[in-house]
Design goal:
This protein is α+β, with helices and mostly antiparallel strands and 491 residues long. It is built from 19 helices and 15 strands. The mean pLDDT is 86.
Length: 491
């Protein structure tokens, strides 16, 4: 039998290495805020405190028990391969600690849950003496923070900021300190803009409310929203949603200030490109994934891509949640959307303002069909965001919209090229006939079938007619048993 010898990492050297994983100050702060949002905080305050040489981040989330706090302070406190909650922004169980260490040597967390206050600290300067031991401070040492808390919440205190305050000249060091605060404000305004806009999340930095910066400039009526595309991973476990936008020509902004603000803190050229969001939290922005080079004519092209934690490995999300790589199953679709978006951007950019939103969209009038690839299976779908179709929907009530949607699904499935088997010839390799009932794709399709059955029956069609029709639909042939079951269960 092989001999086993335990080989524990040397604490001081390992933690020193963790300080150099590649965070900058603003991405480190954002990583700490991820924890606050995962704790369902409604209000998060960041304080850059020059007088006490520290950064303090406090929230009103649900807090932690002493047991949970100690577990969360452990280095590598979660398995990255573990299925996480849908709204969880974490991944490795290391982000908050490594982010804090990239700023300073001392991390203290004070938390309150069910009116009980707990605390724990790491102090890298004490590691040589105490090793892998957390420090639990006396109540008097943390009273400054515990007295500020309501019924629940968490306060993260980062001190001994050797990576932030690294200049001997105090005046220069102070100026740098507040420049970092300003950069952090702009970064958070973009990274968490959807939480601020959609969830009314309150983010404050040194007492000033952080306003969301939405890169897609939706408040300008001249912004174009191009057709959205939805793609599933090869195993059907994860969905990717691609939404391209083309921003307005300079002349369509009320003022030059509005135009400059739309360009973003780093300018129009930097902010063109793809924005990848994981659970609505921005991961990467302003990239074309090496498909094309940035050109002035593409400045108006910005594409939103939404992914879920189920896609982390596919997209190679790193510990900092600031880099990503295109998986092979979406590359073709993303590159097609880049071509469409940049082509439209170039037309608007070169129009010298002599265009309207409607006539720029006119060349895309023929964009009626979309090709999709889900779980290795090709299919064709009607462009549900076509301008003429959207105008028609506006004239219908909810029942009418549902009926129209069901009819369009019939058209999609009984189109000659779908019935002829042409799509089957597109398949590369063997496509599994057995659906994965745990996959997101399966759940979406079952919902679609359930809705159609309800509509067909409400329109007077019999169960026999409904079942026969659904069984003949090209996009649902692999769900034969489910169709029969759903029709039988329908009321």
């Amino acid at each position: 039998m092989a001999k086993k010898i335990q080989s524990m990492p040397e604490a001081r050297l390992l933690l020193a290495s963790l300080r150099s994983v590649g965070y900058n100050e603003e991405t480190a702060i954002a990583d700490v805020i991820d924890n606050c949002i995962s704790a369902q905080a409604h209000e998060i305050k960041i304080q850059f405190d020059w007088e006490k040489k520290r950064i303090v981040i406090s929230d009103d989330g649900f807090g932690m028990s002493e047991k949970d706090l100690i577990e969360n302070m452990r280095i590598g406190s979660s398995d990255p391969s573990k299925i996480r909650a849908e709204d969880d922004l974490g991944r490795f169980g290391m982000g908050m600690k490594t982010a804090a260490f990239s700023l300073g040597k001392k991390l203290t967390v004070v938390t309150k849950s069910e009116f009980a206050v707990s605390n724990a600290s790491w102090d890298l300067d004490q590691i040589p003496e105490i090793g892998w031991n957390l420090i639990i401070r006396e109540e008097s040492e943390i009273s400054e923070f515990s007295s500020q808390m309501g019924a629940q919440g968490t306060i993260v205190v980062i001190e001994n900021l050797d990576r932030v305050i690294d200049i001997d000249d105090e005046k220069k060091a102070k100026n740098k300190f507040y420049r970092i605060a300003s950069k952090t404000e702009k970064h958070l305004a973009l990274t968490f803009h959807r939480f601020i806009e959609e969830d009314n999340l309150i983010l404050e930095l040194n007492g000033t409310l952080i306003k969301a910066w939405n890169p897609f400039i939706l408040e300008n009526s001249a912004t174009q929203e191009l057709p959205e595309e939805s793609i599933f991973s090869d195993d059907g476990s994860a969905e990717v949603i691609i939404q391209p936008y083309v921003l307005p020509h300079k002349t369509k902004f009320v003022s030059d200030d509005d135009y400059q603000a739309a360009g973003g803190s780093k300018g129009w050229n930097y902010h063109q490109g793809i924005y990848v969001y994981r659970n609505r939290r921005l991961i990467i922005c302003g990239t074309w994934f090496d498909y094309i080079k940035k050109e002035p004519a593409y400045n108006l092209a910005r594409i939103k891509i939404d992914i879920t934690p189920a896609s982390d490995e596919d997209w190679k999300i790193d510990i900092k949640k600031s880099t990503a790589s295109l998986p092979s199953y979406v590359r073709e679709s993303v590159e097609r959307e880049i071509d469409l978006c940049t082509e439209t951007s170039a037309r608007v950019y070169n129009s010298r303002g002599s265009y309207s939103k409607s006539n720029v969209s006119a060349p895309n009038l023929d964009y009626v069909w979309e090709q999709r690839k889900k779980n290795g299976r090709y299919s064709f779908h009607i462009n549900r965001k076509h301008s003429l179709l959207n105008n028609l929907k506006k004239q219908l009530d909810d029942q009418g919209k549902s009926t129209l949607s069901a009819y369009l699904t019939l058209v999609e499935n009984f189109a000659p090229f779908m019935q002829s088997g042409m799509t089957d010839s597109l398949q590369k390799g063997k496509v599994s006939a057995e659906p994965d009932k745990t996959s997101l794709e399966y759940q979406v399709q079952i919902k679609e079938l359930t809705d159609m059955i309800s509509i067909f029956l409400s329109q007077g069609f019999t169960k026999e007619e409904t079942q026969s029709t659904l069984l003949d639909m090209a996009n649902y042939r692999h769900l034969r048993e489910d169709i029969i079951r759903l029709v039988e269960e329908a009321q």
